[in-house]
Write a structure and sequence with these properties.
The structure holds two protein chains of two kinds. By secondary structure, chain A is an alpha/beta fold. The longest helix of chain A has 38 residues. In chain B, 40% of the residues lie in helices and 23% in strands. In chain B, a hairpin with a 2-residue loop joins strand 4 and strand 5. The chains are: A alpha/beta, B alpha/beta. Chain B: InterPro entries: AAA+_ATPase (IPR003593), ABC_transporter-like_ATP-bd (IPR003439), ABC_transporter-like_CS (IPR017871), P-loop_NTPase (IPR027417).
């Protein structure tokens, strides 16, 4: 099948109005706020060198924070703010999605606007400011009639830079729940759907380019005092914004929101649940690519209605427990703890997605290794790779302690690449996931954990507090509970890791339902 | 000399740090008079000029304009009723010739059609072609044209007093001569009081009724050119001799039957 006739282009295109509209909306709002704050600050500090220097330093520091981290930071910050306003004034707001994304992006947009604003205002010939005074202008008239118009081209260049930065960085707002063109990129990277990745990158680059060119037109119009060019640029921007916003404005976003974290299994399960709800006549959408720390809070706050998490993850991250209990006991205790937050643990899906140490089957046989205890004897000559969080998680500490593991080297890797790396011998052992389809594909084995250092990771279905008594929802989801065994999930995950039209989360979810629905 | 001076400085002092830019200066400018302030760079002549419309504030002494102490007048209102011509024009580059000229009437809230008529009147007065120059930006004008616009702008709100800060200094000699003469006739025709800064004694002698000589912040001498030639100050005499000495040198260098 040729690349161009790939049906995934069509699927990508069908998401475009939604993703693009939301991307433009959050970028626009962020820029508006950024400008509304930065321009007055630039004006206020134009004759005050000390506050000006402090301000520029602060803006520069913000700029050094990586975009992803800045966006992620705003979520807990706003959660805290929301709980404070709830306690003090009895009102709360959603710390999820639009608000944190907009605020973080607004902060991000400030440096170029501030710097160019200040440069523009300070670069004006002092003789002209003197002349403004001399012809009888008040300081305010001098600012409005002389200084701002003269600084405008330089300011506009800063606004242009800010717009491009914001549009580019907005792709990173997907993990905190803001739909954007980043949804293509995150989903594509996780499910190895390069069509989506390409589409997302191209769409955001084109958007940034278009806005940059239109703002450039306005800038050149201002610089050369051409009303025509300024007007053309303005109309172009307005048309672009209208064209992207109108389709999303018209759409109502009511109904159930199914959350998904940022990996393939979650994309597939959220698509499956969405399909089940729709089949039961409920309106539902999937909100995927949410950060693992964001998604639980989003459920608690009711920003999403349901999602699948894993018992061991909540045990460690939400209950802050480091002890390890047998599977059933841990689940029961978790259920009680979640109920205190009014979160319903509806049930287990039937499989575990636990961390496991994974090595090629041949290698295990050659070394005579079957369990982690066997591995410990060889560890000092071996290297290990894990995902970005594994080595800072309690499981790793527990493993090291229980078995006295000391590896020669440890590396962090993008989860999708770990399996190929261990299969090719680039690393010796990886900390993989038990439900991953690549384990079978690369002929790898998971090592036993005789000392039970790694807690159980049952996939469990959670419902938001506001859905606690929603029987229609519960009965729509009932057919999934206990029906998805590890072999089926592995196969589904393997399918999702393919790079063709049948590997899209939607297609795999349908396949999975075909298997599960008959049980 | 009429009883009430247009501008009066009484023992005025202004320092910048330890530098006394204007040091105990007392000077009257009579109504209808054309006064030139002459002096080298850093002599305090620009500071003295700007004290009159409060672009710079005095540390000590009293300044009155048309009988009023400038400290009792709102500085913005004061500046709107005194014309000011800046060195090399000081035109706003983003405004057309017409908008530059009409700026002070606009600040005073005059109606747009009245301003438009006034602009046309002023363009004629400073001898600029209305259709050719009205809507141009300053960057499209020659240096002489820009300074004509600067003069028109200073006159737009019908001031009785005009302050000029080396208005013709940066122009080529021919333009400068013509502009000086043209302004001088405007000064007479409109009955203005003009204070002009120049570092060129020849220009001062040719245009001004009286000359004030500044040096190191002090007013060394004031009077008509004839009065100044009786001064006891060597610097003043030296200044006065300069134009004549230049003429002698020119005569020696050029054939007597030259075109001029």
């Amino acid at each position: 099948m040729s690349l161009l006739s790939d049906p995934r282009w069509g699927e990508a295109l069908s998401h475009l109005p939604d993703y693009l509209g939301n991307h433009v909306r959050v970028s626009l709002a962020a820029l508006a706020i950024g400008l509304a704050v930065s321009l007055p600050l630039a004006i206020l500090t134009r004759n005050r060198p000390v506050p000006r220097a402090v301000l520029l330093a602060l803006a520069s520091i913000v700029q050094t924070v990586p975009g992803l981290a800045l966006l992620a930071l705003f979520y807990p910050l706003l959660l805290l703010a929301a709980s404070v306003t709830l306690a003090w004034f009895g009102v709360s707001f959603s710390a999820f999605g639009f608000l944190p994304a907009m605020l973080a992006l607004a902060l991000y947009s400030m440096l170029p606007v501030l710097r160019n604003g200040i440069t523009g205002l300070n670069g004006i010939d002092p003789a002209l400011i003197e002349a403004a005074k001399g012809v009888g202008m008040t300081p305010r008239q001098s600012l409005v009639m002389v200084e701002l118009p003269l600084a405008l081209p330089v300011m506009m260049a800063g606004i242009r830079t800010a717009a491009v930065w914001v549009i580019g960085t907005a792709t990173l707002s997907t993990p905190i729940g803001q739909t954007s063109l980043g949804n293509y990129i995150f989903a594509g990277l996780q499910t190895q759907n390069w069509v989506f990745v390409l589409f997302g990158c191209a769409a955001s680059a084109l958007l940034a380019l278009a806005v940059d060119q239109l703002l450039g037109l306005i800038e050149s119009g201002l610089r050369h005092r051409s009303r025509l060019r300024t007007a053309l640029g303005g109309v172009g921007i307005a048309a672009l914004v209208a064209a992207t916003l109108v389709p999303t404005m018209a759409r109502s976003s009511s109904g159930y929101v199914v959350g998904a974290k940022t990996f393939a299994e979650q994309y597939v399960l959220s698509a499956l649940m969405r399909d089940r709800l729709q089949a039961a006549g409920l309106s539902a959408t999937a909100r995927s690519g949410l950060g693992s720390s964001v998604i639980f809070e989003a459920l608690k706050a009711g920003d999403i209605d349901l999602y699948v998490d894993y018992s061991g993850t909540l045990w460690a991250n939400q209950l802050h427990r480091t002890d390890i209990k047998p599977r059933a006991e841990l689940l029961a205790e978790l259920k009680t703890a979640l109920a205190r937050d009014n979160i319903t643990l509806l049930g287990e899906l039937g499989f575990e997605n636990a961390y496991a140490l994974v090595i090629p089957k041949k290698r295990a046989e050659a070394l005579g290794i079957r369990s982690i205890a066997d591995l410990a004897a060889h560890a000092s000559t071996l290297s290990i790779a894990g995902d970005y969080e594994f080595f800072s998680r309690p499981e790793w500490a527990a493993l090291q302690k229980a078995y006295g593991l000391q590896f020669r080297a440890q590396r962090q890797m993008q989860p999708d690449f770990m399996y190929a790396a261990v299969a090719s011998g680039e690393v010796d052992v990886i900390a993989g996931y038990t439900s991953d389809g690549l384990i079978a594909k690369y002929d790898l084995v998971t090592l036993d954990d005789p000392k039970h250092a790694i807690p159980p990771y049952d996939a469990i279905l959670l419902l938001a507090p506001k859905r606690a008594g929603d029987e229609r929802l519960k009965s729509a989801l009932q057919p999934l509970l206990g029906k998805i065994d590890i072999a089926t999930m592995r196969e589904a995950n393997l399918r999702a890791s393919g790079n063709d039209a049948n590997s899209s989360p939607d297609a795999v979810a349908k396949w999975l339902w075909g298997k599960v629905g008959q049980r | 000399m009429p009883s009430k001076p247009a501008i009066s400085y009484q023992k005025v002092t202004r320092s910048f740090g330890s530098l006394k830019a204007v040091d105990h200066v007392s000077l009257d400018v009579a109504e209808g008079e054309f006064l030139a302030i002459v002096g080298g760079s850093g002599s305090g002549k620009t500071t003295l000029l700007r004290l009159a419309n409060r672009l710079i504030e005095a540390d000590a002494g009293t300044i009155t304009v048309e009988g009023e102490n400038v400290q009792d007048v709102d500085p913005v209102a004061l500046r709107r009723r005194i014309g000011y011509v800046f060195q090399s024009g000081g035109l706003f580059p983003h405004l057309s010739v017409a908008d530059n000229i009409g700026i002070t009437p606009r600040l005073l809230g005059e109606p747009a059609n009245a301003i438009a008529m006034r602009v046309d009147e002023l363009l004629e007065l400073v001898q600029l072609d209305r259709t050719a120059h009205r809507d141009r930006l300053p960057e499209a004008l020659s240096g002489g044209q820009r300074q004509r616009v600067g003069v028109a702008r200073a006159l737009a709100a019908r001031p009785r007093i005009v302050l000029m800060d080396e208005p013709f200094g940066a122009l080529d000699p021919l333009t400068r001569d013509a502009l000086g003469d043209d302004y001088h006739s405007l000064h007479r025709k409109l009955g203005l009081t003009t204070v002009m800064i120049t570092h060129d004694m020849t220009e001062a002698i040719l245009l001004a009724d009286r000359i004030a000589v500044m040096r190191g912040g002090r007013l060394l001498a004031q009077g008509t050119p004839a009065e100044l030639s009786n001064s006891s100050e060597a610097y003043v005499l030296e200044l006065l001799r300069t134009p004549r000495r230049q003429v002698e040198r020119l005569n020696a260098l050029l054939p007597a039957s030259g075109a001029a």
